[in-house]
């Protein structure tokens, strides 16, 4: 048995009991196999949903969540009200939970598990030592051996450990490390050592939230609420004179789950209309479920906003390209087509023409191309195939151009050909000593179609069998 | 009643006059005004169609070229690359490529590009476009003044609301002055199937050659017979299609 509900616990069935023993105590006990993976996933989803109270939430072990509510309590009317809200909403979601709050994570851990009530708060006027005094030592997250040893000495309450001297403890323990571990846990609970929290989602830089008395479940409702949220968020950004590049809309549903959609822009923006237009198509992806009772719009990656003031005279215009408008267009296309849909060519320093260019995701930047690359040359193809396609070629050995070849099951007769242009492999990149040089030919067939054909390898170069031929590109 | 009108309404602006004159003769406004369709004559002519489109870009206004393409077509025909465009004298840093999955997405992206006013020309490679879609694009292009080129496969038939439809196929290239056995400047045969501004020219065939050195497109005559022999171009009516300014 790994876990039991309240009625089973009343009958004495709990974790650690064998199923046969449990059945003997209660013949009609129902059991299901435990699924740790699903539990972990559900716990993480619950942790993400908990970001409605605080942006810093993390999963703690297999059955607990840790929330850092520093500074969040005032939005909910105090710490007590916040915890009650958490408890109520968890109960609405069908989960029973115990809550503990304190100035340190260790104290909260102990209060949640071993406190007297379901909700235990260490008040600000109460010192941590006071609050933890009467809790059992197991609340310090010690190893089993350490616990057993402490119990043997009669140290069962945390309060008893306060006055124990470190060296005295070390003499009782098998090693100094074990004693130090106990002392370390105590110091953590008392706040002498920090315990940083790794949040499930990085906290946003700007946020605007809106909760609803009646849960909303239509996309029109979401759109209407989003307008207000976007205005508030952009007002914050404007106060700081910045724009942001990542925006996330999170919808917290009333059944303890949340869904979110996010988008990023090419340049920092803070224009309400632009943000609303980008979200317009993505709002359908939010599933309202039983109703959304809190909407949060957050912004990350803030940066100074570059406002291109429109010059009055065309002569003063910086260039023919309106980069702001172009970035806005790219944002709209990316929002509807997906990330990485809009790309620009970037030059790579390589002598191999098929590797000398790559498509980089457009982020508002301008690529510059070397002047020498821009010289028009007739031996670079217009259309490059993604992968070279093998062809059967009849050609003169050892390095004659193709005379006839069959490509895509159509025989073609070559009328004119130019080449070979030898492109050697980049030996510093490939550890493969079998890489072979390519001889490229420009060929034209009877109908005027022009191809870029290469032969991979030379006859009797010692790197594999006879060379093979491929079509790599089409000329205009 | 006196209605006040500005002086500019009495005299049509010089740009508009030049544009109107340009659309009455080859290339009938391609790359400068309106939506033009460029279709392959047969399967496998995609290289010629792309070359024809790239040669038209040389004369377009300064600014960004938005090139939208369907992924399925790219697997079949290959992609136009920045270096390939540089071979036509075009600056690769002016290209923005958008890869889409379907023709609907391609049409949506084309309309967004045309309406945005941020690009100087929109080129789209897609598998099909309905009449309604071409009508929408034509209206968008007239409203914003951004020209557009649609590159379509060989099975493109039927009515279209575009300004013109061209049918392009490759032709044997010009003689190479340095090596008789090597291919020379690329040549294409472009048939104007439909044209809204010059309907009497519909059906006319243009033999074109793209000159690598001067980077202009010329009309060439004397290629009617015999693709086997490459004759040197006797340009009867040369209309140099050069970048203005």
Describe the structure.
The complex is a heterodimer of chains A (476) and B (245). The mean pLDDT of chain A is 85. Chain A has 476 residues and is α+β, with helices and mostly antiparallel strands. Chain A has helices at 6-10, 19-25, 36-49, 79-92, 105-114, 128-132, 144-152, 166-172, 176-190, 219-240, 272-280, 323-337; strands spanning 57-60, 64-67, 99-101, 119-121, 206-216, 242-253, 258-269, 292-304, 342-347, 357-361, 383-395, 402-407, 410-423, 438-445, 450-456, 468-474. In chain A, the strands form five sheets. Chain A has a six-stranded antiparallel beta barrel. In chain A, 28% of the residues lie in helices and 27% in strands. Chain A has four domains: 1-34, no CATH class; 37-190, no CATH class; 209-304, Dna Ligase, domain 1 (2-Layer Sandwich); 383-474, no CATH class. Chain B has helices at residues 14-23, 46-57, 71-77, 82-86, 103-116, 131-144, and strands at residues 35-40, 65-70, 79-80, 95-100, 121-125, 148-152, 164-171, 187-195, 205-210, 217-219. In chain B, α5 runs parallel beside α6. Chain B has one domain (27-219): 3-Layer(aba) Sandwich (Rossmann fold), CATH 3.40.50.300. The model of chain B is unreliable at 1-13, 223-232 and 234-238 (pLDDT under 50). The radius of gyration of chain B is 18 Å and the shape is globular. Chain B is built from six helices and ten strands, in the order αβαβαβαβαβαβββββ. Chain B is an alpha/beta fold and 245 residues long. The chains are: A alpha+beta (476), B alpha/beta (245). At the A-B interface, α12, β9, β11, β13 and β14 of A face α2, α3, β3, α4 and β4 of B.
């Amino acid at each position: 048995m790994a876990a039991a509900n309240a009625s089973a616990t009343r009958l004495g069935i709990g974790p650690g009991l064998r199923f046969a023993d449990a059945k003997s105590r209660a013949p009609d006990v129902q059991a299901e196999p435990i699924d740790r993976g699903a539990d972990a996933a559900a716990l993480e989803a619950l942790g993400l949903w908990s970001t409605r109270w605080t942006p810093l939430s993390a999963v703690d072990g297999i059955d607990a969540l840790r929330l850092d509510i520093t500074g969040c309590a005032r939005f909910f009317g105090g710490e007590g009200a916040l915890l009650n809200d958490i408890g109520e909403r968890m109960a609405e979601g069908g989960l029973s939970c115990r809550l503990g709050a304190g100035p340190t994570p260790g104290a909260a851990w102990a209060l949640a598990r071993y406190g007297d009530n379901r909700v235990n708060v260490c008040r600000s006027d109460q010192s941590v030592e006071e609050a933890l005094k009467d809790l059992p030592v197991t609340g310090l997250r010690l190893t089993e051996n350490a616990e057993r040893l402490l119990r043997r000495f009669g140290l069962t309450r945390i309060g008893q450990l306060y006055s124990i001297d470190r060296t005295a403890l070390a003499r009782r323990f098998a090693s100094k490390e074990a004693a130090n571990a106990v002392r370390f846990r105590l110091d953590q609970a008392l706040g002498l050592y920090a315990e940083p929290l790794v949040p499930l989602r990085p906290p946003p830089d700007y946020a605007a939230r809106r909760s609803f008395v009646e849960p909303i479940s239509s996309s029109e409702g979401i759109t209407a609420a989003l307008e207000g949220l976007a205005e508030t968020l952009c007002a914050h950004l404007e106060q700081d004179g910045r724009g942001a590049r990542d925006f996330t809309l999170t919808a917290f549903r009333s059944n303890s789950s949340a869904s979110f959609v996010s988008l990023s822009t090419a340049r920092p923006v803070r224009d309400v209309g632009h943000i609303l237009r980008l979200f317009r198509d993505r709002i359908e992806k939010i599933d309202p479920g039983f109703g959304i009772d809190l909407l949060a719009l957050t912004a990350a990656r803030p940066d100074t906003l570059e406002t291109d003031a429109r010059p009055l005279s065309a002569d003063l215009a910086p260039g023919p390209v309106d980069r702001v408008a172009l970035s806005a267009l790219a944002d709209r296309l990316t929002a509807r087509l997906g990330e990485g849909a809009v790309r620009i060519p970037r030059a790579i320093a390589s002598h191999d023409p098929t590797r000398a260019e790559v498509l980089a995701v457009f982020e508002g930047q301008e690529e510059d191309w070397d002047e020498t690359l821009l010289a028009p040359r007739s031996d670079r193809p217009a259309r490059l195939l993604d992968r070279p396609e093998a062809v059967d070629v009849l050609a003169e050995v050892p390095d004659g151009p193709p005379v006839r070849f069959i490509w895509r099951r159509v025989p073609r007769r070559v009328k004119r050909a130019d080449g070979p242009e030898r492109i050697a492999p980049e030996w510093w990149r490939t550890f493969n000593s079998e890489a072979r040089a390519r001889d490229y030919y420009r060929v034209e067939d009877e109908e005027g179609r022009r191809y870029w054909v290469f032969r991979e390898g030379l006859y009797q170069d010692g790197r594999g069998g006879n060379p093979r031929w491929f079509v790599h590109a089409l000329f205009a | 009643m006196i209605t006040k009108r500005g002086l500019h309404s009495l005299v049509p602006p010089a740009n508009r006059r030049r544009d109107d004159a340009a659309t009455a003769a080859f290339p009938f406004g391609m790359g400068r005004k309106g939506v033009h369709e460029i279709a392959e004559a047969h399967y496998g002519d995609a290289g010629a169609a792309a070359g024809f489109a790239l040669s038209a870009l040389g004369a377009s206004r300064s600014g960004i070229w938005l090139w939208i393409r369907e992924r399925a077509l790219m697997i079949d025909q290959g992609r136009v690359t920045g270096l390939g465009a540089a071979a036509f004298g075009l600056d690769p840093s002016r290209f923005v490529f958008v890869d889409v999955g379907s023709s609907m997405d391609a049409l949506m992206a084309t309309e967004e590009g045309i309406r945005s006013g941020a690009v100087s020309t929109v080129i789209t490679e897609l598998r099909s476009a309905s009449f309604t879609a071409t009508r929408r694009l034509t209206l968008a292009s007239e409203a914003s003044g951004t020209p557009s080129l649609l590159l379509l496969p060989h099975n493109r038939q039927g009515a279209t609301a575009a300004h013109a439809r061209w049918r392009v196929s490759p032709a044997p290239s010009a003689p190479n002055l340095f090596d008789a056995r090597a291919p020379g400047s690329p040549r294409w045969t472009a048939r104007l199937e439909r044209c809204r501004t010059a309907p009497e020219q519909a059906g006319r065939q243009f033999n074109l050659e793209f000159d690598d050195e001067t980077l202009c497109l010329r009309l060439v005559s004397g290629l009617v017979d015999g693709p086997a022999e490459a004759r040197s171009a006797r340009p009867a009516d040369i209309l140099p299609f050069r970048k203005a300014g």
